[in-house]
């Protein structure tokens, strides 16, 4: 993943990322308050690459992805800023009509809860065929054949029978597979999946992960949103860690998992390691609206973390693609102070099963 | 609050002590039972000696039932409202914050007050045909030769017709029997309140209990109750009422019983389906694991959570029953001494037929004597609109998730 | 709690179990609950909960869903037992039966020496006070129309505490102890985050000073960090008040963080139970191994999952004969006289049970693709073309032909007769592996089959 969106303009077409987002800002406006749910987010996704956005609820990870194709409900959301380039074309500020032609056709979404994505009164076959015909692909018997082959591709046995069944006749995991089949109907270049494995059993989750992994072999890029580092480890090529509407760390999955640099990323890993005790509510505090958003919870916070915007990205010595938004990694900072505390716990040998 | 710190710590609660002092008496139950006992004593006294509460008001069977309903509503709705004063104030604040809702609720309160207390204060108004067709203030009417006019009498421009002017004696005018319109409106309000209170006290609880039992118990009980509701929904209440009308003395009670007991199916179905949805919710499971009884869960966890659909449905039913009563009375199937708005409207529209001795031009009557039917029609309309608006007002005010 | 890890509950193990187990006693750290007498708080014996499948207006019973089908376990005082399984394994039904939210079909539940099913009147009320429930979804755990204060006070008032000011004082105190403030009592549930709601849930369970908390997936709806906070709170409370916890989860990874012991359920039965470290270090039952293999590793270079034989979870209304896991078991026992390698046996067994479930992969489904030739079938199932045993070779061949011609039923019968296994014929009895009970033929000394060594690492 190229971490800097500006570099894309100089690279040749084939090296250009499929999707690049630069400085995306989305506000949520309610009668009572207005706050930036996404506050200056930049990342990119290459063709056939799997990028995972990790964060907890309220980190802005879902709003980020829903802002890409404008499916975030507006209002209350309002996209105020940012360049989104998809396949060499700017799609931010595109008209609803243009966005509709991209949505589903080139960029498809899969949501956490397949119940919401599937219409209970149509058979799954109808819904797949509908997704194809909306994008002017095919109709008639050839569409049906393709729908069957899609169901087969997502691992649904007896696809020819089950195509005529209704969503309620499928189990939770199978329903999620159907939702993925619908998303794949128009042969998208990018699949945006928002917590697709959260609501299912571990055994089913394993199957879904294998399925998503197979998709990237066909050169489909995946942007996966999750709060579960285990899912990230099993799928991602690169990782984007979000906190409080901003990106705090990004890089290839191997280096981020072997040397989690940002204190927040480290805290995330800690929660897999044992029970944390953040009982005191006041210690968690309010989310700061400037400076490093994590500083209220950060054990390494200092005055330099306050004020201004989320700190710049500094690359780690170990990997030029791995960068972190933390003042301790700036040229005048002392990265060892943060890293030392973590390396004992987070060497790869420790976290492996 | 006690200063003993052990009283603040859950570990130090002596449950054996609490178990020993546990009692089934709650203020709600106490007030309900005491209210019923007092009511029964008064009823017994009334049946032997005759009793006048206020003025010359004769208390009838329907009134007794409505009193019982008031005791029920007062103890199970009123007492909690008083006990949770802060919550009540919040609900009132929310209602008041929306002018339309506040006006509607205000009108209903006025209606309730005049409907319950008004007839007793007004007393029995004698029929005096001589006083017929006195107009309301600011209006005039032609007078027959035998008419008396409480206000000023002038002669019209033709020099022959005498005109009666409205006066403070009968500010809203009189009808063909010389009864003041104010009295008739209050009598009509009283009838409407009887309808509303009877429905609230008997029909709605019946529907809610059937719905909760069916939804909560499920299985065969659910099948039986819902099959019964289906059958009941197919029986036209008006047909049963007219059959009753032919065999028994017609009365408001007969109307309320036939319509009330045959029309709760819709609400029972709403309550049942909402109960089914909430039965498996976490808080119901937790309450069950704590040993809460089904009536407790229904009252505390199910009903408050279905107010979004239940309250508007109930107020819609109330409006419907008020309208049905007026309609039946309009058609003439009412007790002759029950002055419902519906019957007053009908009398105003067919004056020439009902008043043989009238001196007035038959074709012109209805429009020239407009107040007789227009005033109750306005009262009925405002009541119906207020009921619908109040349903919405209560629904919004009861939902803590709604923000003002 | 001053030290973060010193008393962490997954390190703590109750004494009651340690005599049966050879794990090091150093697991008992100072401050961990040590049970003096071996009398458990809760004993579950042969618990069954069947739901009749009925038909028609008269509700004639035509079958039974065996949601829980004879399970036994104990929970010691102050101990946390994890009950793990996939959805449909019956773990929630078991929990509800223990709390008498459902009447068990059979079996005995003994709580503090008294049979729960016989309780009534004040004794039942006392049980309902001493055993509390924490439910899964924080969003539906609270009546949205009641303030948090009245929700937490509800157990008190239901159990007869009529003094309102005292209830309020206790509620404020307990809210502060779970990390919220006393003023929060006047706020409504929707004003709190998921993690805060789950803290309030714990406060509500705690307020009656219970001896047992049944926690049904209390953290599965939460983010990792919030989850670990809530678990830490539950662990502190448990230690401070010596509360036993029945912890229900589908995720062994969470159970690892919280529980002393674990019982693994599959289709209404417990297949294995034991101290959590032992089970995770060397899981004995093949199903436990499948569950562990399904948890993705935190190491990005280790991305393989070992799959079960087939993915279809059988219908609990018609569970498989013998060992209920046999249709999916990667360690199915081959017949003694069958001359095939372990790998060949696995592919053959996978072939057999995939055919039997009827969930044919579409590539060999004759109704989808029209003519299928035997080679395709062999390729799809990775079947060995040449087996040492000629008779076996021939009969597998005929089954393959039958599949290719669309006659799945004949193929299934053929495979069932040529590839019999003790696992489908005999219900496994309880055996012991390293001192803990396991229901698998491979651990039965009377069977010839030997346990398969566990190759994986811990979670």
TrEMBL record, chain A:
One of its GO terms (cellular component) is plasma membrane. It comes from the Archaea. Keywords: ATP-binding, Cell membrane, Ion transport, Membrane, Nucleotide-binding, Translocase, Transport. Residues 331-353 are annotated as: Disordered. It is a peripheral membrane protein. It holds the Pfam family ABC_tran. One of its GO terms (biological process) is peptide transport. Residues 344-353 have a biased composition (Polar residues). The keyword Transferase does not apply. Residues 19-269 form the ABC transporter domain. Transmembrane segments: none annotated. It is an enzyme of class 7 (translocase). GO terms for molecular function: ABC-type nickel transporter activity; ATP binding; ATP hydrolysis activity. This is Nickel import system ATP-binding protein NikD. It comes from Halovivax asiaticus JCM 14624.
From TrEMBL, chain B:
SUPFAM superfamilies: MetI-like. Gene3D superfamilies: MetI-like. Keywords: Cell membrane, Membrane, Transmembrane, Transmembrane helix, Transport. GO terms for biological process: transmembrane transport. The keyword Protein transport does not apply. Its main location: membrane. Residues 189-391 form the ABC transmembrane type-1 domain. InterPro entries: BP-dependent_transpt_permease, MetI-like, MetI-like_sf. The chain crosses the membrane at residues 29-45, 65-82, 102-122, 195-216, 228-247, 253-271, 309-333, 369-387. It is a multi-pass membrane protein. GO terms for cellular component: plasma membrane. Coiled coil: none annotated. It is found in: Cell membrane. Belongs to the binding-protein-dependent transport system permease family. This is Binding-protein-dependent transport system inner membrane protein.
TrEMBL record, chain C:
Residues 441-450 have a biased composition (Basic and acidic residues). InterPro entries: AAA+_ATPase (IPR003593), ABC_transp_ATP-bind (IPR050319), ABC_transporter-like_ATP-bd (IPR003439), ABC_transporter-like_CS (IPR017871), Oligopep_ABC_C (IPR013563), P-loop_NTPase (IPR027417). GO terms for biological process: peptide transport; transmembrane transport. One of its GO terms (molecular function) is ATP hydrolysis activity. Keywords: ATP-binding, Nucleotide-binding, Transport. It comes from the Archaea. Residues 1-34, 433-459 are annotated as: Disordered. Residues 42-292 form the ABC transporter domain. PANTHER family: D,D-DIPEPTIDE TRANSPORT ATP-BINDING PROTEIN DDPF-RELATED (PTHR43776:SF7), TRANSPORT ATP-BINDING PROTEIN (PTHR43776). Belongs to the ABC transporter superfamily. This is Oligopeptide ABC transporter ATPase. It comes from Halovivax asiaticus JCM 14624.
